[in-house]
Amino acid sequence: MKRLLPLLTFAFIFAACQQRGHTPKPRGYFQIDLPEKHYQLFNEPGYPYTFEYPTYARIVKDTLFFDEKAENPWWINIEIPQFDGKIYLSYKQVGKNNSLDKLVNDAFKLTYKHTYKAESIEEEAITTPNGVSGLFYEVAGNAASAKQFFVTDSSNHFLRGALYFYAQPNADSLAPVTRFVEEDMRHLVNTLKWRPN
Questions:
Q1: pLDDT tier at 26 (50, 70, 90 boundaries)?
Q2: First CA to last CA across the chain, in angstroms?
């Protein structure tokens, strides 16, 4: 019996080493390489605002709004090709046809239309030394646009921004990129300056 035990142990170990079974791996997501943060100035003539945006992004003039012509020539998109994402920026002048209350209510409605997919919506007040104030929205859950904002000077200018990715909304898999681009959106707001009308 004493000789049989080491022989059985050896046979068991030998047999275990010969098996070539599949070991399941935990579910995961692709690794995303995030670029270094560097910014450049958007300072185009004729635009009522300037701001800094990331060097890994590009500005594209928005010519269509829901298949119709854009309301004014100052609507732009910040495209981030590496992440297949876009920050939509829509500008409106406060005044005749656009009272500040109406613009704020419209921004509120556009953000809260995501409530059927959102787990929660957090609002954060924005105030910068450049005379910019407004709200930053964080829409939690699998909503199409997780980060949004609107800013104004309360008398002439109103700018709304919303981040979208061309991917199935999945808060877990998009979280690293969403947080990364949120920093860029906040930088944009903090460097935003209005030009006189």
A1: low
A2: 99
